[in-house]
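To: structure subgroup
Subject: Chain for Friday's discussion

All,

I'm putting the inputs and outputs inline so they're searchable in the archive.
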Amino acid sequence: TQVLRKSLQRGVLLSTGSFLVYEAHKLISGFAEVHASFKVEDVIEQADYLYGSGETEKLYRLLVQHKNSDDAELLWRLARSSRDLAQLGSTSAEEKKQLTYDSLEYAKKALEKNESNFAAHKWYGICLSDVGDYEGIKTKIGNAIIIKEHFQRAIELNPKDATTIHLIGIWCYSFAEMPWYQRKIAATLFATPPTSTFQE
């Protein structure tokens, strides 16, 4: 009986110890998750401050550290900052091309992470348009319809975003004023080339 009692006591102690270890693990894991979410929010807050201050290079350096993130909010901001860095006069032609393609990849990843993020759609459309400058007229015209679809989706998700509305306006104006010879080229390349009107 004494041996049995000692065995039971040892079992209770081990169970209690295991329970405490388990509870401590849960507490630490929970803290880590909360800490991680605060970290993302902190990075976004810092990024928005740098963007508002026009600190293009600092913003890029901050965000590129998070290029493997699963957070769409971080990724579309990285797409935007990569594009902004590419637009700087101090950026070499080679760097500009690399940053332009990188920005499209980040925007694409943001969309994959959250298809309902309006900014991811907006920046995907913008970055896809930029890449077209390197890939020739056929690709640029072919991408135009996809670009417009992403702008329209961004407006569906956020009807008050003035930038996206402006971008659709530019898109429509570009195709409405397209010279006849460019239309002819587009018509030979595509069965139904993108078109628009000044009224639209």
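Points worth raising on Friday:
The chain has seven helices and no strands.
Residues 1-37 have pLDDT under 50 and may be disordered.

D.
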